[in-house]
Design goal:
With 335 residues, the chain is an alpha/beta fold. The chain has three domains: 137 residues, P-loop containing nucleotide triphosphate hydrolases (Rossmann fold); 59 residues; 117 residues, no CATH class. The chain has 13 helices and nine strands. A five-stranded parallel beta sheet has the order 6-7-8-3-9, with helices on both faces. A hairpin with a 2-residue loop joins strand 4 and strand 5. Helix 8 crosses helix 12. The longest helix is centred in the C-terminal third of the chain and has 25 residues. The chain is elongated. It starts with a strand and ends in a 6-residue tail after the last helix.
Length: 335
């Protein structure tokens, strides 16, 4: 029996050179529950986004029931339902209305009996006319599942459906997933919990992150460089108050010149900036240090890790020569 989902040699490489997916091969049979385990940043959400058409893979093929996800994207989209990690829906909408709206997005005519069956299976019948904002967290999560099932997909993706919920709600979600499986829906879910995967899934796939020597090098070089810079600032400061003035004189102008440099390095991406500001940001030496930390901890970076490593090494050498000069000349060290 041919698989309902087949992935061959799937790769995802970002502009920075970071490889989020490395040669993924996977076959999933119709009607099974498949769990994907892995730490944060391992590529679980990237894999789901590539299959669902939210993100374009760099290479490889994805086929759903024999349809190519690129050439036959309309057919593939119809067969896929996605429940994301975040609750993304209109909180002022009624439950039944938002489910009907989701069905209409796929060009399907209203089907009252089918919608009512979904709501009943997910224990939402008595909440059908309630505004979503009035529901509990668990009910809101069920509404997201109902929206994903509204267009009668063959495959349902659940991206960490029980993240941040209590034990009772988690067990309730397990029951809902089991009921969906009985209805013939193929379910692919991501999770951090091995016990959850063992209880719910027929098979388990693990995506892991390899932390090469380069990451350790980044961490060590960045920590040493920040420490040396702090030492230099301490030597140059006339008094305790100036310890806060020196960073302000240097860091504040850089942050103004390169907007979102620090936030861009830590939480967002400098690729979100206009192209001109992306280039200007590269003149800021701190961006290489921040991206070094990102690569060390998260395994991802906006910049080429080798270039960042070289730049951090240059800053380290400059700091060492500066400190050597301070000790050699006795600058501000004499009583």
């Amino acid at each position: 029996m041919p698989p309902i989902l087949e992935i061959k040699n799937l790769n995802k490489i970002y502009k920075s050179g970071f490889k989020a997916l490395d040669d993924i091969n996977l076959e999933i049979q119709e009607g099974e529950i498949f769990a994907i385990l892995g730490p944060n940043g391992a590529g679980k959400t990237t894999l789901i986004s590539s299959i669902c058409g939210i993100s374009n893979p760099s290479s490889g093929t994805i086929s759903v029931k024999g349809f190519d996800h690129t050439e036959d994207y309309r057919e593939v989209r119809k067969m896929i339902g996605l429940v994301p990690q975040e609750l993304t829906t209109d909180m002022f909408e009624k439950v039944v209305d938002t489910v009907i709206f989701s069905r209409g997005l796929f060009g399907l005519q209203p089907n009252k009996l089918y919608i009512e069956k979904i709501l009943e299976d997910l224990s939402l019948s008595d909440k059908r006319n309630n505004q979503i904002k009035a529901l509990s967290g668990g009910m809101k999560r069920r509404v997201m599942i109902a929206k994903a099932l509204a267009h009668e997909p063959k495959i349902l993706f659940l991206d960490e459906p029980t993240a941040g919920v209590d034990v009772k709600l988690r067990e309730s979600m397990w029951e809902s997933v089991a009921q969906l499986r009985k209805n013939g829906v193929t379910i692919i879910l991501t999770t951090h919990y091995i016990e959850e995967a063992e209880k719910m899934a027929d098979r388990i796939g693990i995506i892991n992150v390899d932390y090469p020597l380069l990451m350790i090098m980044f961490f060590i070089l960045t920590c040493i460089t920040f420490s040396l810079i702090g030492f230099i600032i301490g030597i140059l400061a006339e008094n305790f108050e100036q310890l806060g003035i020196f960073p302000s004189l240097v860091i504040t102008p850089l942050t103004v010149i390169t907007p979102l440099t620090f936030l861009g390095g830590s939480f967002y991406s400098i690729n979100m900036l206009p192209e001109f500001w992306q280039k200007v940001s590269l003149l800021n030496p701190v961006i290489y240090l921040v991206n070094g930390f990102r690569w060390s901890f998260y395994g991802e970076s906006d910049l080429n890790p080798i270039i960042s490593c070289i730049m951090i090494s240059v800053f380290l050498i400059i700091s060492l020569f500066t400190i050597r000069w301070i000790f050699k000349t006795g600058y501000r060290l004499k009583a």
